[in-house]
Amino acid sequence: MPERAVIADLIEVDPVLRTMELDRETLLAVIAYADAERALCTSNDVKGFNLITMHDKAARGLREKFAGSRWEKDETDNQAGIRHPILKLRVIPCNFDDNAGNPDKQVTPRPRHLKGGASRKKIRCNQTGWLPGLDLPPVRDEYETWVLGIFADDETRSAELSLPLSFIGGQFSDFQTRIILDTGAHDNGAAARKSPEGEAPTEIVNIPIKRK
Q1: pLDDT of residue 105 exceeding 60
Q2: Does a structural domain hold residue 191?
Q3: How many CA atoms within 13 Å lie on the side-chain side of 127?
Q4: Which residues pair with residue 160 across a beta bridge?
Q5: How many domains is the chain partitioned into structurally?
């Protein structure tokens, strides 16, 4: 089974995102937009409306920033996001707990609300064909689904783009790859930063991208 990867240094983050036809600055703009809309919620709103708003505006931001000739709007299983028909990639937003953006490999962020059958099916598709020893039912969805995991409150904001591989008790329980976009309160000067000039990455992380 491939080793789990956490990609945090910009010298590695940017090239990986380019292979997915995404870019960090635009993803951060989407997150900032969603957070600004969330911040307008007050205690007079319906309970949980701040998370609903964050999710909705993140999905809208992804569509407004990326949908066009390559990426397109996606509503598979009523989960709002975008998909890339050529690369067979999908991105959906999710409210993560405060471990979002934490570059510690021992940490696994969790959704702030339990996920349902649609998320479970997408994870099963992520597993199909290259996780050994799994007896999985046929899955027609050929897209690999990445999660734009965001945590935000009135004090801090952090985010990552992650590929979930397992789903236990209504939670994402494991990730194949976590691409750190914003470390937020977890920033210790070693993650989501530019490497010193002339410094080469110590490890090249290869992420398979499906093409037609």
Answers
A1: yes
A2: no
A3: 21
A4: 149, 180
A5: 1
Pairing of strands 81-84, 89-95: antiparallel
Domain that holds residue 44: 5-186
3-state secondary structure the chain: CCCCEEECCHHHHHHHHHHCCCCHHHHHHHHHHHHHHHCCCCCCCCCCHHHHHHHHHHHHHHHHHHECCCEEEECHHHCCEEEECCCCEEEEEEEECCCCCCCCCCCCCCECCCCCHHHHHHHHHHHCCCCCCCCCCCCCCCCEEEEEEEEECCCCEEEEEEEEEEEECCEEEEEEEEEEEECHHHCCCCCCCCCCCCCCCCCCCCCCCCCC
Gyration radius from the chain CA atoms: 17
CB of 29 within 8 A of CB of 124? no
- Whether the per-residue pLDDT at 119 is higher than 90: the answer is no
Q: Please compute the mean of the pLDDT values over residues 194-210 and round it to a whole number.
A: 40
What does the alpha-carbon distance between residue 90 and residue 74 come to, in Å, rounded to a whole number?
Answer: 8
Residues 136-187 have pLDDT tens digits of 333 446 899 999 999 999 999 999 999 987 654 455 668 899 999 999 977 6
In a domain, residue 133? The reply is: yes
Side chain identity, residue 40 = L
Name the nearest CA neighbour of 204 among 20, 25, 15. Answer: 15
Q: What is the mean pLDDT of the chain?
A: 79
